[in-house]
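Exam prep: given the inputs below (a chain plus pyridoxal-5'-phosphate), describe the expected output before reading on.
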Amino acid sequence: MPGKSTITVHADRDVRPSRAVAPPIYQTATFSAEDAETFARVAVAPRGQDFYTRFGNPNHAQVAAVVAELEGTEAAMVTASGMAALTTTVLALVSAGDHVIGQRSTYGGTASVLLNLLPRLGVSTTLVDQTDPDAFEKALTAKTRLILVESPSNPLLQITDLRAVADLARAHGVPTLADNTFATPLNQRPADFGIDLVWHSATKYLNGHSDVCAGVLAGPAETLNRIWDVGLLTGATLGPIDAWLLLRGMRTLPLRVPRHNANGQALAEALQDHPAVSRVHYPGLATHPQHKLAADRMSGFGGVLGIEFAGGFETADAFLGRLRHARRSASLGGVESLAVHPASMWRGMLSEEQIAASVPPGLVRLAAGIEDTSDLVADAVAAADTLLAPAATA
Ligand SMILES: *Cc1c(COP(=O)(O)O)cnc(C)c1O
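Solution:
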């Protein structure tokens, strides 16, 4: 089995081989066929790359080849965004009358699918405390058709025992879908624990340069074919150039992730005892309530940390304004550090009760980029120092 860097550089080599060292961009909406028989065959080839770009494109197939090998799954597919990967999967696997289990601490868009979209389509949902594996079992009903997990979760960095949930789901014949965006396949491979399907906002670490919105989904070929069939109807197709940029970004994923991990760890350690900070949520800290489980499941803890300020909503917002390197922006996983204050960012998206149930008001999500560790730490500590009353700094 080749190493991760060899995979990201070479795993797509047999997909549309070319004498060009950098893969060509297949900027075409459609493909021609020699004869009627070939045309009929390529039209129905699941996740094909020769018929019409909504059905598949060589640039999609190249990304998919790398993702499948990185995640250790049989196959993968590409979508126009992370949310497209989620909604296409959900639409393919559940119908009115079914039941879906998700987590209480989860990405805002996933929460909205669980709380708003699915109930409107007649699918009931239960959101559980992911830190308690028994909670998933208690939520199971005879109608449960899918379990959605996310570990570490956005933005609270809670850990799900992927193995326990996968075992439980398999025992009941229920498929599992894991959001692996925060961990990346470098730090954690959900399929190794028995999770069936893995999705990513490839917008984040996989692409890594904050210049593309994309999604990927990895899993067994047969299940992906069913999801791809629905994807033809939802039409959430990634443009060929964006797929090409995503592949280019992924080439350096194994170089970037260790730096994100180191920066996340250093920031968490530097801020956890700061007097303006009440708590740092980061699975790499020994004080994280699930540190042991995280250390058992992950080979690195990622670049995202949750910093809770004792001063609450206003202090969190002030901290953001005083960072010099990290910009206020709703993404993560790029080479540059970004930070958000979820309680203010979500004001227009979720109800007040939903926000209160999801995040503490004084929480900042800091996503460390790949800048020099010492610069990021000095900047974050200096920003936190400005929040202290003069008496406390003296
Ligand atoms: C950003 C994000 C998503 C959504 O992905 P898009 O590419 O923005 O659609 C899903 N899950 C997590 C954990 C994310 O951070």
